[in-house]
Write a structure and sequence with these properties.
The protein has helices at 6-11, 16-22, 25-28, 38-48, 52-58, 77-85; strands spanning 31-33, 59-63, 71-74. With 88 residues, it is an alpha+beta fold. The chain has one domain (13-85). A 3-stranded antiparallel beta sheet has the order 1-2-3.
Length: 88
């Protein structure tokens, strides 16, 4: 999965819709949501010590084609690395 630095996202002035297109969410997942669960977001930002707004703006909740359980993915490389390290 393609990820970017926060600086690349900000420099490109990318919207969440732009990031969804770059990550090819419509192609790779059954569904995706721009909104992410508030409790997960709060806990994740606290544990990972990452900026709340930057996480919220770069992260999606996706639903795989073969599963109904959603999970987060992020276009921001630091967030994605933390997602892969931590159980959610």
């Amino acid at each position: 999965m393609l990820t970017m630095t926060r600086e690349q996202i900000e420099r490109g002035n990318m919207s969440k819709m732009d990031l969804a297109r770059i990550l090819e969410l419509k192609t790779n997942y059954r569904e995706f949501d721009y909104a992410i669960p508030q409790a997960w977001l709060d806990e994740f930002c606290y544990r990972a010590k990452l900026d709340y707004n930057a996480v919220r703006q770069s992260t999606f909740w996706v639903y795989p084609k073969n599963n109904f359980m959603g999970h987060p993915i992020s276009a921001w490389d630091k967030v994605q690395k933390e997602i892969e390290k931590q159980p959610f």
